[in-house]
Each structure stands twice: as structure tokens, then as C-alpha cells.
Amino acid sequence: MAIFILKPYLNEGQAAVWLSFSKLFQIAICVDASKAAEWQSVCQGFIEAVKQHMPSLLQKPKTHMILHLVHCMKELGPSSAFSAERFESFNSNIRAYNIFANRRAPSRDIANRFSILQQLRYICHKGIFPDHKQSCGDALQELFSCK
Fewest CB atoms within 10 A around its CB: which of 27, 92, 110, 140? Predict the structure, then answer.
């Protein structure tokens, strides 16, 4: 859809790269392993279009990973199954905790901070971890009762 909207604003080379990227995105979410040869040609077509029209993009590590996309999809399934964004976004939490560390033992300070958050989570869930189905003792349960 975006290619039709952006087409008037792109030159011929940019349009070729965008079109090949669209095809690449289409196969990245596909699960049909019988089309591996077609996938490989689409990946090569994208790299060739980038090489001709946007050579500076080839220096990015993620552009190189496209060459391995077909093999990874054969081994690991659809690309959504091996996404790392969720874990990469967690780095912002660690960085935020590291800002307030004493710089002598940042790992310990970060671990203490996560420990405190885990304790707060336990208390906020009324002494029950939802994923473990374990509850706290009677004294803490009584604290949360509405009597």
C-alpha cells in the first residue's frame, strides 16, 4: 500500500528498492517452506537493488542478515518467532537503573532494583504470582482481606 502512496515522491532507484523491500517483507511473514528458492531470489533481488541505488545501506549489519533470512526461516519458522525487539526494549530499563547506580557495583544495584520491583509485584498481586500459582502465608493474606 505504501508503495502506491509514496511512488510520486520517489525516484526510480528508490522505488525499485522500496518495491523489492515490499516483496521481502511479504516473504518474511510467510510460512511456506516449499518456496525457499523463490525466497532466496527475492532476497538477492533486494540486495542487488540496494547495491545499485543505495550502496550506503549495505554497510548496515541488518542488511547483511537478509542474506541469511531464508536459512533461518527454514530452521526456526516464520520470522516473527525469532524477533528480538521485546528483549532489546528491556535494555532501556537496565540503562535507567544504571543511571542511579553508585558506579562501584552497577550489576548489584541493578539486581537489587529488580528484586525490589519483584517484591512490589508480589505485594500488588495480593501475595500470589500469577505465573506460579503460589500464594503467600495466612498473615499476608489477612492483610489483603477486605474485612
Answer: 92
